């Protein structure tokens, strides 16, 4: 009978841990899925400390528990903007990225230069739809800058 209270608490905790840490059906490492446009999810804007699938800002997302930096763009900062204008632009880029991701299936490709992680440990990926970079869409819309191009002064000259 002494084991009953332990089992009453321990078994539900064990079941919860198995569900929490079990891989999602069909989930493979992100690097193995590079190129295929077979990803889809509902992306809210990230809130709070637990982040599974959400948009952090215009160039960073969480997807299935992995933090991903979009490798081909640079965006205005939202967490520590240099000026009010940068904060507004950063929120616009964040919202537009969220809309694009929620519009349908997308791909995750390793950048052509082979970089798979940045200096902060984030996965580096090019997000694609119909063979086109989602980052390039944001660049054309004037919300972000192309990575590796001239550094954009989001706060004006």
What is the share of helical residues?
25-40%
- Beginning-to-end CA distance, first to last residue: 75 Å
Structural class: alpha+beta
Q: Kindly provide the name of the CATH class.
A: Mainly Beta
CATH topology: OB fold (Dihydrolipoamide Acetyltransferase, E2P)
Radius of gyration, rounded?
19 Å
- Count of discrete alpha- or pi-helical segments spanning 4 or more residues: 3
Describe the protein's architecture and organization.
- The chain has one domain (30-146): OB fold (Dihydrolipoamide Acetyltransferase, E2P), CATH 2.40.50.
- 29% of the residues lie in helices and 18% in strands.
- The chain contains three helices and eight strands, in the order H-E-E-E-E-H-E-E-E-H-E.
- The chain has helices at 3-21, 84-102, 134-140, and strands spanning 54-57, 60-63, 66-70, 73-74, 107-109, 123-129, 132-133, 145-146.
- The strands form two sheets. Strands 1, 2, 3, 5, 6 and 7 form a six-stranded mixed β-sheet that branches. The chain has a two-stranded antiparallel ribbon with strand order 4-8.
- Strand 1 and strand 2 form a beta hairpin.
- It is globular.
- Residues 13-29 have low confidence and may be disordered.
In a nutshell, what does this entry contain?
This protein is of the alpha+beta class and about 160 residues long. It contains 3 helices and 8 strands.
Secondary structure: elements and pairs:
Layout: H1 3-21, E1 54-57, E2 60-63, E3 66-70, E4 73-74, H2 84-102, E5 107-109, E6 123-129, E7 132-133, H3 134-140, E8 145-146
Parallel strand pairs: 3-6
Antiparallel strand pairs: 1-2, 2-3, 4-8, 5-6, 6-7
């Amino acid at each position: 009978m002494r084991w009953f209270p332990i089992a009453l608490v321990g078994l539900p905790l064990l079941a919860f841990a198995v569900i929490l840490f079990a891989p999602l059906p069909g989930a493979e490492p992100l690097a193995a899925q590079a190129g295929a446009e077979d990803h889809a999810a509902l992306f809210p804007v990230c809130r709070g400390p637990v982040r599974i699938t959400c948009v952090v800002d215009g160039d960073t997302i969480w997807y299935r528990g992995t933090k991903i930096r979009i490798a081909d763009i640079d965006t205005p900062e939202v967490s520590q903007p240099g000026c009010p204008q940068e904060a507004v632009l950063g929120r616009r880029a964040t919202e537009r990225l969220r809309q694009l991701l929620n519009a349908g299936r997308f791909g995750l490709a390793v950048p052509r230069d082979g970089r798979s992680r940045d200096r902060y440990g984030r996965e580096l990926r090019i997000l694609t739809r119909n063979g086109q970079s989602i980052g390039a869409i944001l660049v054309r819309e004037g919300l972000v800058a192309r990575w590796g191009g001239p550094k954009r002064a989001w706060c004006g000259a």
